[in-house]
């Protein structure tokens, strides 16, 4: 029997840790990322996952066979590929299978690391390969090169950094072996059944699953044309409350696409879509030099510290160049986080605060969680002197008030929220009206026992959604959610 079983005893804090040296390839079919992607045609695209999937084929005959290996752009320097192993391992061995094409010579001069996130500052060296990896003539084991890692190659990502200049980083198979050390705090969040909101216009057929399908032909796009949607955004409304560690965004491949630039990514307790102190930023004004090799390019964002929240906002702000035609687009979005709790656990959307408007009855669409202007809305404008008003009984201590609104022009007078407290003292808050068509804007309200809320427009706005976050609600299950619960059931509404 050739079963190799190495038992390692590590003395840690007076405890023996029992680890078994596994013969299982821990990289197979795990999520893979690479710096850029060689795109020959929509089908013949050398995705990162082709390096570690079940389909191993070393040939490339474009007329008959789709190349089944990974490959970065040949025009890029500093290319890399990274496999998410999902758990923390002591990596002991890496095996590489090159290709059976003349470009096999491109695969040389690379360093292998174990790390906590792709291209991390916390990386542990595994192996340096200087010379050309042998040409694969078949997929037999003898054509693989095997590298034994340096000691302490501990990590949950295995990354190969190519140092060989403008050459393909192309792998037909990549196998990784190691000893399980422990579970990782964070993982890829499956948000495909959650909701998203983006300012119009955006590609109407987008489904969230398209952003996790490893398919460059399905992507999110919001166009930032002159005078249209100058502040494009994409907001992911997570169903649960999370601690977010980082994000990996993969760009699109369209001819007009540019680098993922002028980007801000925040995590928030509130649905605010414009730049705000309510948003906790993981990325601020990310603005890489424009390069020609941008197809399927991966942008790695590890937050400097984990950030908690329920809404992930990606927005583009190029205030110095509002006339330029940027495309805001990306094909994949991988969010790494840890679930903290369920903010909906004591929220009953049927019973949340009801609103009505002067001439029309109850406006349930204001509370339906549908933000898009293609859904229901109604026009509030100063000329008609109409308003939305809710009477709150018992009173509510509103912490944050959010309105999603749309307007036709680039500049518009604002929206006024008037809050009446239990002593009939009124206080007005003015939200800027310059939403560049459509945004969710939130206002922090000082401690007040509000008995009535009224919304009026000083210009003309279509109101799509209203959300009220109550101060100091202690959720029985998750204390952490204190400030983010929608107003819910126990309140009685009178008109
Ligand atoms: C490997 O790449 C580095 C960085 O580009 C370069 O300095 C070095 O000369 C290369 N070594 C070989 C053997 O190609
Ligand atoms: C990628 O998506 C396109 C469009 O939905 C689809 O036609 C194609 O089959 C997908 N490719 C793969 C490999 O799933």
TrEMBL record:
Protein origin, superkingdom: Eukaryota
Q: Where is the signal peptide?
A: 1-21
Query: What keywords would UniProt list here?
Result: Signal
Extract the InterPro entries matched here. Answer: BG_Antigen-Binding_Lectin, Galactose-bd-like_sf
Gene3D superfamilies, per this entry? Answer: Galactose-binding domain-like (2.60.120.260)
**What is this protein's name?**
DgyrCDS8370
């Amino acid at each position: 029997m050739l079963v190799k079983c190495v038992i390692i005893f590590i003395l840690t804090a007076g405890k023996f840790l029992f680890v078994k040296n596994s013969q299982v390839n821990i990289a197979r079919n795990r999520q893979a990322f690479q710096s850029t992607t060689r795109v020959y045609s929509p089908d013949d695209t050398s995705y990162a996952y082709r390096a570690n999937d079940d389909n191993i084929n070393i040939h490339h005959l474009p007329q008959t066979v789709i190349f089944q290996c990974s490959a970065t752009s040949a025009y890029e320097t500093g290319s890399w590929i990274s496999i998410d192993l999902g758990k923390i391992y002591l990596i002991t061995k890496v095996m590489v299978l090159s290709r059976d094409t003349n470009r096999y010579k491109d695969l040389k001069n690379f360093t292998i690391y174990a790390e906590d996130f792709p291209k991390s500052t916390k990386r542990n060296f595994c192996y340096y390969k200087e010379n050309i990896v042998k040409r694969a003539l078949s997929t037999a084991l003898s054509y693989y090169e095997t590298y034994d890692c340096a000691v302490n190659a501990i990590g949950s990502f295995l990354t190969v950094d190519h140092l060989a200049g403008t050459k393909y980083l192309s792998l037909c198979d990549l196998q990784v072996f190691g000893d399980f050390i422990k579970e990782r705090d964070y993982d890829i969040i499956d948000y495909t059944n959650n909701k998203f909101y983006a300012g119009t216009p955006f590609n109407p057929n987008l489904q969230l699953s398209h952003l996790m399908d490893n398919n460059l032909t399905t992507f999110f796009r919001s166009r930032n044309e002159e005078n249209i949607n100058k502040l494009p955004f994409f907001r992911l409304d997570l169903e649960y409350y999370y601690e977010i560690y980082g994000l990996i965004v993969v760009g699109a491949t369209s001819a007009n696409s540019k680098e993922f630039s002028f980007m801000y990514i925040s995590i928030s307790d509130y649905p605010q879509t414009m730049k705000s102190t309510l948003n906790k930023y993981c990325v601020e004004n990310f603005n890489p030099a424009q390069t020609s090799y941008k197809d399927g390019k991966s942008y790695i964002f590890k937050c400097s510290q984990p950030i908690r929240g329920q809404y992930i906002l990606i927005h583009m702000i190029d205030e110095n160049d509002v006339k330029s035609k940027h495309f805001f687009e990306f094909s994949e979005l991988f969010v790494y986080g840890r679930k903290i709790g369920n903010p909906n656990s004591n929220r009953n959307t049927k019973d949340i605060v009801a609103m009505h408007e002067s001439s029309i009855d109850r406006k349930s669409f204001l509370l339906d969680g549908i933000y898009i202007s293609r859904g229901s809305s109604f026009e509030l404008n100063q000329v008609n002197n109409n308003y939305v008003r809710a009477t709150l009984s018992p009173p509510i201590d509103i912490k944050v008030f959010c309105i999603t609104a749309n307007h036709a022009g680039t500049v518009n007078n604002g929206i006024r929220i008037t809050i009446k407290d239990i002593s009939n003292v009124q206080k007005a808050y003015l939200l800027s009206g310059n939403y560049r068509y459509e945004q969710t804007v939130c206002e922090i309200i000082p401690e007040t026992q509000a008995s009535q809320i009224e919304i009026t427009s000083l210009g003309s706005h279509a109101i799509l959604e209203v959300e009220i976050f109550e101060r100091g609600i202690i959720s029985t299950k998750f204390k952490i959610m204190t400030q983010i619960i929608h107003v819910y059931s126990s309140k009685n509404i009178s008109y």
